[in-house]
């Protein structure tokens, strides 16, 4: 992709000015602490800003620096991450903090190769940390930035093509200025998040509409070319909320190494697995390209349906501090709501 000098000058002038006047007041904005910025960038991967807001401050209160994170038990990190999803990010962050302490004296490095050597840090995160925290003229590229560049230059290409992504990395490197590269990169992110959104771009109020190629050529709705996405797979599951009758719930630990490794979850089960189990309800849940239809059963007392692996009883009031999966959190919520309904029915009782 060839980028003309006029467009470079235009974007470097207009975008940062618009950003400084319109940026959202987010807790990680304005920080020059590379660690805090790193945490925010990892949390924001695949996750909406509104969701991250609930976690960011709590995480930094509990782990205010690299040393604290490196020294913490991984279960404490996972517990604080519980509900944010993509738990491998939390494990990587914790592992990377240990590496930063051992190799870099507890100071996040600014060298690109050193950053890329940390688990969970890819090109985008390295570029964000280097440009925003260290003021280095480093590019960023994710789906958002890809879309705004494609539209501005009226390019009908797809993010799914690795060769295309390489070209856009080079374009992003050409665009990012030496002066205040962090403001420029954050302007790109904010432009894609607030104005040039995927489905409903606000062209009328866009800061660069005067020179937008997609707008000029009436290509906004088609640009960029769609991604090829893996087909969604439907999966049925039954979860069992098994209580010991004293307010504790049975959980099993997922094996280390796999998806959600080390997290705690409800066992699989229905009336066949626990005599007397009753159906509490159902819910839907999606993880990447899998859509789960989940039925929730609850049972109380009797022989716990433990199989192989690590199992534990957890008191309901302590669940908030446990690293449990989002699906398990939903399942327990469904069972609790059903138990409340049953208690309200005269002549009925029972415990979820
Ligand atoms: S004018 Fe519309 S399509 Fe072009 S960059 Fe702005 S919001 Fe996006």
Q: What attributes characterize this protein structure?
A:
3-stranded mixed sheet, 6 strands, Endonuclease III, domain 1, 352 residues, binds iron/sulfur cluster, 3-stranded antiparallel sheet, Nucleoside Triphosphate Pyrophosphohydrolase, alpha+beta
Provide structural commentary.
The protein has 352 residues and is of the alpha+beta class. The protein has 2 domains: 5-216, Hypothetical protein, domain 2 (Endonuclease III, domain 1, Orthogonal Bundle); 233-344, Nucleoside Triphosphate Pyrophosphohydrolase, CATH 3.90.79. The protein is built from 13 helices and 6 strands. It has helices at residues 5-22, 34-44, 49-62, 66-71, 74-81, 88-104, 112-116, 123-134, 143-152, 162-175, 181-195, 213-216, 326-344, and strands at 233-243, 248-253, 264-265, 278-287, 290-300, 311-315. It has a 3-stranded mixed sheet with strand order 1-5-4, covered by helices on one side. The protein has a 3-stranded antiparallel sheet with strand order 3-2-6, covered by helices on one side. A hairpin with a 2-residue loop joins strand 4 (278-287) and strand 5. Helix 1 (5-22) crosses helix 11, helix 2 (34-44) packs across helix 3 (49-62) and helix 8 (123-134) packs across helix 11. The mean pLDDT is 92. Bound molecules: iron/sulfur cluster. Residues 148, 151-152, 195-196, 201-203, 206, 208-209, 212, 214-215, 220 line the site of iron/sulfur cluster. Iron/sulfur cluster binds at residues 148, 151-152, 195-196, 201-203, 206, 208-209, 212, 214-215, 220.
């Amino acid at each position: 992709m060839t980028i003309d000098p006029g467009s470079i000058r235009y974007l470097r002038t207009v975008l940062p000015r618009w950003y400084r006047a319109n940026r959202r007041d987010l807790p990680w904005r304005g920080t020059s602490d590379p660690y805090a910025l790193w945490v925010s960038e990892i949390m924001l991967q695949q996750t909406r800003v509104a969701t991250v807001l609930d976690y960011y401050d709590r995480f930094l209160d509990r782990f205010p620096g690299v040393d604290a994170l490196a020294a913490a038990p991984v279960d404490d990190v996972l517990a604080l991450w519980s509900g944010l999803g993509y738990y491998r990010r939390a494990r990587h962050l914790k592992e990377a903090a240990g590496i930063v302490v051992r190799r870099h004296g507890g100071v996040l490095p600014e060298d690109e190769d050193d950053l890329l050597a940390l688990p969970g840090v890819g090109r985008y995160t390295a570029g964000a940390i280097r440009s925003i925290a260290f003021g280095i003229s480093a590019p960023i590229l994710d789906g958002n930035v890809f879309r705004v560049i494609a539209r501005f230059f009226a390019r009908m290409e797809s993010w799914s093509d690795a060769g295309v992504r390489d070209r856009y990395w080079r374009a992003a490197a050409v665009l990012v200025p030496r002066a205040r590269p962090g403001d420029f990169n954050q302007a790109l992110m904010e432009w894609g998040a607030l104005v040039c959104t995927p489905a409903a771009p606000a062209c009328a109020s866009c800061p660069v509409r005067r020179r937008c190629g997609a707008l000029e050529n009436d290509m906004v709705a088609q640009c960029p070319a769609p991604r090829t996405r893996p087909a969604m797979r439907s999966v049925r599951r039954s979860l069992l909320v098994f209580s010991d009758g004293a307010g504790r719930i049975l959980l099993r630990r997922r094996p280390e190494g796999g998806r959600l490794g080390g997290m705690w979850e409800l066992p699989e089960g229905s009336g066949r697995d626990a005599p007397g189990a009753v159906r509490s309800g159902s819910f839907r849940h999606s993880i990447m390209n899998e859509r789960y239809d989940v039925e929730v059963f609850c049972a109380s007392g009797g022989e716990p349906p433990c199989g192989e692996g690590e199992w534990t009883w957890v008191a309901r009031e302590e669940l908030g501090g446990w690293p449990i999966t989002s699906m398990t959190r939903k399942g327990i919520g469904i069972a609790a709501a059903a138990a409340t309904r049953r208690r309200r029915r005269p002549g009925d009782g029972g415990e979820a």
